[in-house]
Amino acid sequence: MKIAVIGLGYIGLPTAIMFANHDQRVIGIDLKADAVNMLNAGKIHIEEPGLQTELTKALLSGNFKAQLDLEEADVFIIAVPTPNKADAYRTCDLKYVKNAVKKTLPYLKKGNVMIVESTIAPRTTEDVVKPILEENGLIVGEDIFLVHCPERVLPGRIIHELVHNNRIIGGLTPACIEAGKKVYGIFVQGELIEATAGAAELSKLMENTYRDLNIALANELAKIGDTLGINALEVIEMANKHPRVNLHQPGPGVGGHCLAVDPYFIVATTPQNTPLIQQARAINNSMPNFIAEKVKGLMEAINGKKITFLGVTYKGDVDDIRESPALEIIELLGKETTFEFAIFDPHVKASWVEPDLEKAVEGSDLICVLTDHSEFKMITAEKLAGMRQQHIFDTKNVIPKIETVAIYNMGNLHEMQKSSKKLVPIAE
């Protein structure tokens, strides 16, 4: 079977390589020449554990190649971005999906399978993609088998979860579902769940919306605890000992191209029915400003001059900065204050990121932890010796206890200014 994967990003590339390493001929299509050249030279352009090894294997087998231009195939998998539009409900922008579908038209032949993996608004497959194919004389379910099959993987575990997670196969007809199952049955060991395309679309969106709402509840609890002088993290720990409670952890906000984006696709489709989803989005969107205000208050209380930010990705142990609340917090403080900044993130290579932790914290009055990278869980007092004042605001609750350092988190926010007045500079 020959498979064309359109879009070689965080999902498209692992998917393409997985098919290649299960004896399928795969061409990966991307608009970025640099990415194509890197992949054909044997180097991945995104960070994901195990992916480099899998790419090397795929190239050595001769089953995978990356290129700019599309060609004929048996299966076309569309894995392109679906950003939000800048409208009132942040509607799903389908321009990349529609362009990808249209680019396949000259190469489609009877019996082909088209799979949309991109996360899309409910009814997109039936109301948007299907008409493009029909306008070109193709009968869905007879000439072309159209399927929506959303990915359900966790960055950092993509290789494992592509194989072992259950997979929803949302087809427009029973024949489409069977065609989709045949494709993913090549390597998926989890259950292949049969569904309509619309149900598959909405299921993916609701999975991420559920998590977004749970995080919003935790973030609201952190604010409640701050107001009432109660440790919210202790409350969550105790509540989760109940057999039917699973509160998430609060943090600086929600980022990435799933939780911060997908709920809006539901809202935009039916705004009158989604007040809860909209409120959760508002709560999570408020967190960067809430954190920035807490940072300002602490810096004013200690007469601080320099802040060192640890982590700018939207989650730990990845290099993905899409929709990152960390960047929003830094931008807010940059606009509203005159503090000096340093940024350290071991997973991000950029001119504005200091690659050395000790240099980043030198002369700093406050460290603000915004991402839960594993490296931060091993920080020692020696690494922080160059700080002017030793205060840490750990929004992800990952820094180990250090006797000489005042550490604040999302549970003891109410102690920040009260405790800071008792502390003195460590070094001048």
UniProtKB/TrEMBL annotation:
Keywords: NAD, Oxidoreductase. SUPFAM superfamilies: 6-phosphogluconate dehydrogenase C-terminal domain-like, NAD(P)-binding Rossmann-fold domains, UDP-glucose/GDP-mannose dehydrogenase C-terminal domain. NCBIfam families: NDP-sugDHase. InterPro entries: 6-PGluconate_DH-like_C_sf, NAD(P)-bd_dom_sf, UDP-Glc/GDP-Man, UDP-Glc/GDP-Man_DH_C, UDP-Glc/GDP-Man_DH_C_sf, UDP-Glc/GDP-Man_DH_dimer, UDP-Glc/GDP-Man_DH_N, UDP_ManNAc/GlcNAc_DH. It comes from Listeria rocourtiae. This is UDP-N-acetyl-D-mannosaminuronic acid dehydrogenase. One of its GO terms (biological process) is polysaccharide biosynthetic process. SMART domains: UDPG_MGDP_dh_C. GO terms for molecular function: NAD binding; oxidoreductase activity, acting on the CH-CH group of donors, NAD or NADP as acceptor; oxidoreductase activity, acting on the CH-OH group of donors, NAD or NADP as acceptor. Belongs to the UDP-glucose/GDP-mannose dehydrogenase family. Residues 308-401 form the UDP-glucose/GDP-mannose dehydrogenase C-terminal domain. It comes from the Bacteria.
